[in-house]
Fold these 3 entries.
Entry 1:
Amino acid sequence: MAVVVFDHEGSAQRYLPAYTEVLVGSAAVEIQSVLVRRGRTVEPDIFVDLDGIVVAGGPTPDYLAGLSSASAGIRAAVGSGVPYVGFSAGAMIAPDAALIGGLRMAGLQVCPSDWSEGLDQVTVRPGLGLLSFTVDVHSAQAGTLGRAVALVEAGEVATTVGIDEDTCLVLAGPASGLDGCSVAGSGSVWIVDYEQDRAVVSRIQATLPNPLPDPA
């Protein structure tokens, strides 16, 4: 299993166990850590012959830049049935059109500055190409749902899906879209579509048990 983690001056060593302990537990799984660093790209052949791909959280623009060289390999792996799990930034970079940050649209603030990734304008870039809809995260907790709505209302993307913390959106496959999706965890998934000349928000609550241990 490849676990992709952003690294700055050794920071990955602090964060990597948090992902491997939750995902693997006591099972005998070989972990291949893949470090993303600013100004460098990941080797594409890393994502060959894997049983799972996990992309962690952290600076979304850096994850997308670091994995851009390997996007075709990741798509090929997922297309062949390899599961992809994205935490925070890892979920945001997965779509065809990836939201990488920003807090303003048309001069108006649409989300808190703490979640802008250092970008002023809300910015969408070509992502890994695994999903047809755009993803935002920490929706209820960080107040990013306004950004998801603004993106659709402005016609920047057709659909945005906002995912709460401690919540997982489970898809049947890369081509399935939201058909047959499930939600696990303690929060909600917010779906923003454009209907009748306006952005319309619907909410899906958990239909599966929480797969992660109680953080308490």
Entry 2:
Amino acid sequence: MNALKAEFVSSSPNVKNCPDELIPEYVFIGRSNVGKSSLINSICKRKHLAKTSGKPGKTQLINHFKINDSLYLTDLPGYGYANLSKTSKKNIDNLIRDYFLYRKQIHMIFVIIDIRHDPLEIDLNFMSWLIYMEMKFSVIFSKCDKLKKGSTNAEKYMLELTNKLNNTPKYFITSSKNKEGIDKVLAHITNKSYS
């Protein structure tokens, strides 16, 4: 799929205010500053469609982007940013929970992981919750351009994930900077065989 038409639709403070069209939705979520917005921009082949920031915790709304009038890419706030106030963290946690509980249009969830890091409890707990809720998700490792050549961080991560969660989701290794793996994510989004 080429994103011939990609447009920002809305920023919503909660699930009730999100677009109500019944078209497939692909959700991007992960810890703050893992590169969700940059990844969406790379998929859509647009530099500034999704706003990026070097400051973790900046995105606190649900951002919807419509692609070719046929699907949504959704950028959810990052979780786990320690420097937010307790109230802000609680609000984001509630927003994320409600979104997954009540948003019926969700077709696939992409959990974004910075490939440079070992598995963190907050990510494992979140994926464990998705499994418990019987939600389909895949893992996208971001920032692979920052790894030393020949590193096997992704394979080690997935092995630990399998051992701890007894689940082996599909995964992708990507770089928004050099576009590595982006086409594979696109192909996964447009592949109907896992519907």
Entry 3:
Amino acid sequence: MSSRSVSAVVPASSQLEGAGMVVHRTFPGARLDMVDPFLLLDELGPADFGPGEAPGFPDHPHRGFETVTYMLDGVMEHRDSAGHRGVVGPGDVQWMTAGSGLVHSEMPDSRGGPLHGFQLWVNLPAADKMSDPRYQELSAAEIPEWSGDGARVNVLAGAVGDVAGRIETHLPITYLHVRLDPGAAFTQPVPAALNAFVYLSDGSVSVGGEDVAAKATLLLDGDGDEVAISAGGDGADLLLLAGQPLREPVARYGPFVMNTKAELAEAVDDYQAGRMGVI
């Protein structure tokens, strides 16, 4: 097997989203638009809020893709126009297929406290964009973990060795949360047909001879069938993501991601007419 090299390093920038939540984002942005089929990755926090201080993501619509909320600390309370309610707490994941559309909100605990997590957007194939909304929610205890030689890996999707994630995906997707002790190494097979990247949240790593410190996305080339990661002297906390590219036209406008401008216009009309419901 041969290891992939780093084709680009994109530092994260801080910006405000929702009702004023500070996020660290590397894409979409001026340097990196998307990593097909992944449309967006935000790191929320880490931050610590007093009672009533934490902003969140009030009522907003989605259509045509999936949102993945993975919390490391704190909670996000979810509500939607289909009547779904839930709380995503430390170590939990919610994989929401917006499909044909709904209105939802994600709000932090009003009592305040620490908050740290990730929001990932995954594009849907054209054939599935108008599918029924669906939720897959796993508690921290339900997410499989692989460990060995100074590495601990939460397997949200895909597999590490014989440890397989429990999320069902529309496309072949790997979503791993990797924590490395100082100087530890981790190698993951990733077929050359999949697009892949590493998001380094904390610490420092060496990948394909490239030394990088947090916070940044390491875009990986397709010349290889594995990803080899070595942590620096302060260890590393990172996400490794890989997915089968759709190679389909992408038309997006805010919270809607479709294939054509006409489909976007229809999504806006449906939302404004209340056809996606209200909370």
